[in-house]
Structure formats: structure tokens, C-alpha cells
């Protein structure tokens, strides 16, 4: 069993990449946004960045679901911003069967993608706060780093290749 946490700022392609990995591997997809309570979504939709206090219950809910799946012998891919190390510590912690995949891209590239999105609760104005909060994973977290400069298909192919290498 394996859990892969696909992290990055809003607009980096977490959901697209995570969904493709889940389909390819036959694993369960956990969309981190679906674990947010309504108050968090309302706050973000109003352009107000979440605080750590807003995030703790959300992250613990995702981690609890990860543990349920692992206990049931199931693998999953989690799409979750996981911007700070302390957030990743909740999602990954000492779970030896949980991997971190970081979707890395420039602020300019991601701003272009976010401004092109329709019907998403995260407004482009919050991108600055996402980058201000982002703590890129360090080498001790053993991240699988996927640069998102190419097309969606190219990014997904790179993510799949790198995941396969790690799991081999």
C-alpha cells in the first residue's frame, strides 16, 4: 500500500496530476479540497487566506482518511496544497508508505493558469498568499519533484515516470 501526497500552490495542477496517477495505478483519489469545512471554502471564496487554525482540522481529516485506507490495504493519491512543512508532517509524518510529490512552477506560470480557471473557489488574488506560505520541501522529505512547465500531458507523464522509478 502506498499513499502519494501531491502538493503545490493553487493552480499547480494537483488535482489533474493526482487524478491521472490514481487512474494509472488503480488507486483511490482523495481531493484535499473536498475535506475543507464550508467555513474554509467561504473564507477562500471571499478572498481571505486561511490561517493555520483553519487548516489543522482539515489536515487531520485528510490524514485520518489516509490511515483508514492504509489499514484497509488500499493505496491512494491525495491532492493537497500542503504548503508548510508542519502540514506535511500531519499528512506524511512517520508513515513509511507515504510519498511526497511536489509540483513546482514559477509564480508567473501559475498566475496565468489560475487566471484562466473558471468556477473555482480559490480566487487569483490569493496566489500571493499561497507563495508567501509555501515552504518548498527539503531533501530530508525525499520529495518527488515535478516541474510543471510543459503541457498537462507532459507533466502527467513526468509524474508517472518519476513515481514508477521510486516504487520500483
The CATH class, by name, is Alpha Beta
Order of helices and strands: EHEHHEHEHHEH
Sheet-strand content, in percent, reads 5-15%
Distance between the termini: 13 Å
Number of helices: 7
Spans of 5+ residues with little confidence (pLDDT < 50)? none
Query: Can you tell me the CATH topology?
Result: Rossmann fold
Give the total of beta strands. Answer: 5
What is the C-alpha radius of gyration, as a whole number of Å? 15 Å
Keywords:
5-stranded parallel sheet, 7 helices, 5 strands, alpha/beta, Rossmann fold, 168 residues
Produce the secondary structure layout:
Blueprint: E1 3-7, H1 14-25, E2 28-31, H2 38-45, H3 52-71, E3 76-79, H4 85-91, E4 98-104, H5 107-116, H6 127-133, E5 144-147, H7 152-167
Parallel strand pairs: 1-3, 1-4, 2-3, 4-5
Helix pairs in contact: 1-7
Amino acid at each position: 500500500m502506498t499513499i502519494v501526497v501531491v502538493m503545490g500552490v493553487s493552480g499547480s495542477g494537483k488535482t489533474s496530476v493526482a487524478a491521472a496517477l490514481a487512474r494509472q495505478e488503480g488507486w483511490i483519489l482523495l481531493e484535499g479540497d473536498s475535506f475543507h469545512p464550508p467555513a474554509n471554502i467561504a473564507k477562500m471564496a471571499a478572498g481571505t487566506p486561511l490561517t493555520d487554525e483553519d487548516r489543522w482540522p482539515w489536515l487531520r481529516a485528510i490524514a485520518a482518511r489516509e490511515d483508514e485506507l492504509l489499514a484497509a490495504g488500499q493505496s491512494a493519491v491525495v491532492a493537497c496544497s500542503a504548503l508548510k512543512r508542519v502540514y506535511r508532517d500531519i499528512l506524511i509524518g512517520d508513515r513509511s508508505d507515504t510519498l511526497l510529490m511536489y509540483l513546482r512552477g514559477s509564480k508567473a506560470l501559475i498566475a496565468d493558469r489560475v487566471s484562466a480557471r473558471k468556477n473555482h473557489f480559490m480566487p487569483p488574488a490569493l496566489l500571493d498568499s499561497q507563495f508567501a506560505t509555501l515552504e518548498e520541501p527539503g531533501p530530508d522529505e525525499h520529495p518527488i519533484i515535478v516541474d510543471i512547465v510543459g503541457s498537462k500531458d507532459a507533466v502527467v507523464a513526468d509524474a508517472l515516470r518519476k513515481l514508477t522509478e521510486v516504487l520500483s
